[in-house]
Amino acid sequence: MKRTLISAAAVTLMLTVSVSSTYAHPTTESLNSPHVISLNESPQGIRHLRVVRHTLRLEIPQQCKALSQLTIEAPSHITVRDNIDVSDQSGKKINANISINDKKVILAFTEPVAPNTVLTIAMNSVKKSTVTTGDKLYKISARLEGNNAELPIGIAQLRSY
User: Fold this and answer.
1) How far is it, in rounded angstroms, from Cα 19 to Cα 40?
2) Distance (Å, whole) CA 60 – CA 119
3) Most buried one in 50, 56, 66, 149, CB count within 10 A?
4) pLDDT tens, residue by residue, 9-49
5) Running DSSP on this structure, what letter comes out for residue 93?
6) If we measure between CA atoms, which residue out of 118, 140, 122 comes closest to residue 71?
7) 134 versus 83: which is more confidently predicted?
8) Does the pLDDT value for residue 89 go beyond 90?
9) Are 54 and 120 in contact (CB under 8 A)?
10) Where are the domains of the chain?
11) Is the previous residue joined to 75 through a cis bond, with omega within 30 degrees of 0?
């Protein structure tokens, strides 16, 4: 009996970990503009933990202009602190001036980020104001080089179980 319960718990845990918790899919129209690849939380699946890391991955396609600024609007129950690391697909650090205004995080890149780059934005000290259940929606917009308009590029959804 005890062995069966342990086996069932192990299988349940394995299935829980293997299910993706991110829902961020680019549309065909967005393949020529920056788009969200993924949003992950770590440690994953612990609802009662107050301080976590949210990692956003964003692709700047070859056909796109260089990225000069990125704006990330956090959900109402999330507080993003200024402990943010930005890097490219090779792990090289990308320099950015980071400003946080209420729920908006603005990353102004010191040099525009070139096309054909995958950015990883690690928000290291994200604080949850309450025990979270349901979805977390981050609204993301960008400014491209030579353009002052802020373009909405997507919503990254992170589900809590």
Assistant:
1) 12
2) 8
3) 56
4) 555 555 454 444 444 544 444 467 899 998 888 876 666 56
5) B
6) 140
7) 83
8) yes
9) no
10) 21-160
11) no
Could you say which architecture CATH assigns to the domain 21-160? Sandwich (2.60)
3-state secondary structure of 76: coil
Place of tokens 């990330």: 72
Place of tokens 């993706």: 20
pLDDT tens readout for residues 45-79 = 666 567 888 999 999 999 999 999 999 999 888 88
Is the separation of the CB atoms in 72 and 121 below 8 Å?
yes
Report residue 70 as tokens.
């990125």
Amino acid identity, residue 86?
V
Of 151, 157, 126, 122, the C-alpha closest to 60 is 151
Structure tokens at 150: 């802020």
Instruction: State residue 5's pLDDT score.
Output: 53
Copy the structure tokens of residue 143: 């400014």
- Sequence-distant (≥ 6) Cβ neighbours of residue 20 within 8 angstroms: none
Q: Residue 138 is encoded by which pair of tokens?
A: 């981050």
